[in-house]
Structures are given as structure tokens and as C-alpha cells.
Amino acid sequence: IRPAMATKGTAFVENMRTSLASKSLRIVQELRSLSSRIVPTVKPQPSASESRRDLAALLLLVTVLVVTSVWLQTTGGLQAERVPDTPSYMEASRATTLGAALSHHRTVGFPTLIRSLYAVGGSRDAIPTLAILLYNVGVLLFFFAVRRFSGSTWLAFAAALPLPFAGVVRLAPLLQPDFLSATFVLLSIACLLFVVSSPRHWLAWIGLGLGVLLAYQFRPAAQFLVLLLPLLAAVFARLRGRSRGEVLRLFTATSALTLIPFLLFCTLRLATVGNFGLVSFGGSNLAASVVNFLDPQLVEELPTESRDLARRILRTFFTPISSSRA
How confident is the model at residue 226 (pLDDT cuts 50, 70, 90)? Predict the structure, then answer.
């Protein structure tokens, strides 16, 4: 009997030990899970060599931006240049009422910038310099955004390096909004990458909303961002391994951020000037496109009621070669 009782006692102790061990392990796992939710995980600090590489890439990119900007300044690449669209933007900048500004065939962004410069004692000649400075800020922000998204400094450097030499930089001195609109598109893309990488970064959300708004207010062709950026947000989020629920929430928030201001502005124009849209496209816009195809032969082929107007347009906007040589 005693050996049997000793055996049962040993088995009981072993079972108790196994049970306590398993319970202890479960408690430790629950504590770890709870601590990970309460205390954020501390990211490993980069090594000294990685910090030096990051700094070298940043300094090299800043050097490129400074050199290209100085080169543009010294070669006259930042001297304000009047283009055929400039007078209409100057006319729009002189609008004195909200109705006049919203009924003009130019969006409100560039005229507002011109009016603001003159209000503080400046002039439109400062626009190219301001535009290239803003573009350089966009390049740097894009560098940091790609680095945050990809985790690679040199990939970010490779992505940002071509931007100071992009063909769009040639538009910087022109007194029209194309270059500034492209700059706001660049800023929007950078902020989008920040939003995808850190959805709780509220400054990135503000930058994204403003960037999209200013991009299409300076150039209506940038309206595509309203629908494209939410789709890109979903794609980038999936690339980072986010769950379907997280991707859907990010897509919904980005769509609201880009679409609601656009619809509100269109509604304001509907209430003010009776037109639901970003800008009144028609009239002089269409005439400026059609007039390029006019020539004396085409005038004679037009309907009778349109020929007199076509002849006046030819006399007003076109100078015959023979008279110019004379």
C-alpha cells in the first residue's frame, strides 16, 4: 500500500507542477500582450554608420537643390515671363466680389496669389522665386516621405534626385499656374505617403487636404487627384501589409478628405453663380482653342452668319505675313 500511495503522491505533485507551469506561461503571455498594447514598442535606434549615411544623402540632395536654384537664378531662369494666359489671370486678380471671382473662367488659386502679393507690397515678378522655393520644399518632403514609407534612405534619394531636373522646372518663370499646380501635386503625393505610413499623423492629413485643394484651384486639370489619391492610398496600404479593414478605413477617410471640399466649392459656385463645377469652362476657353484653326480658306467655308465674326477674329489676332514683312 505504501509504494502505491507514494506513486500516486508523486504523480499528483507532477500534475500540479505541470499545471502551475502552464498557468504561469499563460499569465506571462497575457502580460506581454497587455504591455504591448499599453506601452508602444521602442524602435531600435539606427547605428552610427546608418545615421551618417542618412545625413550624407540628405546633404547631397540639399546641395543639388541649392546648385540648381542658383543656376536658375544666375541664368535668368527665374525672371518672370509673361505668356498669353497672363492677362486673363491679372484680370481675374482684380475681381472685387465673390461672385465676380467665381464666375470668371479662371480658377481662384493663381489670381488670389497675385492679389496677395500686391497687397503686401510685392509684385507678380516674385512668383517664380517663390514657386521654386516651394518646389524645393516639396522635393525634400517627398524624400522624407519615401524614406518613411520604404525604410530606405538611398531609395528615397534615388526617387527625389531627378525632380530638380524635371522638365516641369522650365515652367517656373512663366506667369501661369502650371508649375505651382505641379508643385502642389508633388506635396500631395508626399503627404499621402506620410498618411499611409503613419495614419495618426494629423499634420500629414492637413497637408494632403490642402495640397489637393490648391492643386486643382491653381490648375483645373489636377481634379484627377480627387479620385486618384484615395485609390493610391489603398494600394500603398496593401503594399505595407495592412489588413482589409485598415485599407477600407484609410480609403474612406482619404476619399472624404479630397471629395468633400471639392463638392462644397462646387456647391458654393452653384449658389453664387448658378454653375455646379470647379470653373466655368466655355466661351473664351473654347474660342481660344477653336481660333487656332482659323485661316482665310476656312472662313469662306463657315456658315454665312459666322463669317463676319471669323473675319474680325482673324484681323484682331492674326497679322498676315506680307504685312509683318512690310
Answer: very high
